[in-house]
Design goal:
With 224 residues, the protein is mostly helical. The protein contains 13 helices and no strands. Helix 11 crosses helix 12.
């Protein structure tokens, strides 16, 4: 579909079937889809959808069975913090995680599953933790990392790649995402100095400085 077309949830289910996936179809997933579509620019919505599909295919290929509804909700909502431009007091991932947890609780997903949605979204840019936080969190992070940096992409068949990219094209995602992350580094720098957005700040934002863990340790106000 082109960036100007309005996708619908039935299209997503059909793409899933073409990929030999049975995507979950519940009120929670449909509502998460609708919220992501409403709040996200087309390029970002397509990223969310590709991440969901890549994650589902990678899980299938690797023989793992996550909570499909939980993963779908987390995947669909994972970049709402980015869509909203971040916040001055929290990383954009935490903004999205808070939205996701509230959404899950409002859809009767219970506290444990709502916390797993929070973890999946909050940790989606932190693979070194997410991959050790349980199957659901790991599957979310894997699908998102596949679309961001191509991690795991070679595990997918050429036919599957073609189906996903034809249905949800990238729409200049590299440049669009760079613009978004640069804006967060500019507007909310204190939420970025200890994480991956600092790389965008250092490269694109004049005068940006990042935290040095060495300096933090050695400048601590303690007599040794």
């Amino acid at each position: 579909m082109s960036g100007s077309e309005k996708p619908n949830f039935s299209d997503a289910l059909a793409v899933g079937r073409e990929l030999d996936l049975t995507l979950p179809d519940s009120r929670a997933v449909r509502d998460a889809y609708a919220q992501a579509e409403t709040e996200s620019q087309p390029w970002l919505f397509n990223h969310v959808m590709r991440s969901w599909l890549y994650g589902a295919k990678l899980a299938q290929h690797r023989g793992v069975a996550p909570d499909a509804e939980l993963v779908a909700v987390a995947m669909l909502l994972h970049d709402l913090g980015l869509a909203r431009g971040g916040a001055p007091d929290r990383r954009f991932e935490v903004v999205g995680a808070d939205i996701g947890r509230a959404f899950a609780l409002s859809h009767d997903m219970r506290e444990r599953r709502a916390e797993a949605v929070w973890d999946s979204i909050a940790l989606h840019t932190t693979a070194s933790i997410a991959q050790h936080k349980g199957t659901d969190v790991a599957c979310c992070q894997s699908g998102i990392a596949c679309d961001y940096g191509g991690l795991g992409y070679r595990e997918l068949s050429d036919d599957n790649k073609k189906v996903i990219l034809s249905a949800y094209p990238r729409l200049d995602m590299k440049n669009m995402l760079t613009t978004c992350l640069r804006a967060i580094a500019t507007n909310h720098p204190n939420t970025t100095r200890d994480n991956f957005i600092a790389d965008f700040g250092m490269k694109y934002v004049p005068g940006y400085t990042r935290m040095s863990s060495v300096d933090l340790l050695h400048q601590a106000p303690f007599a040794e």
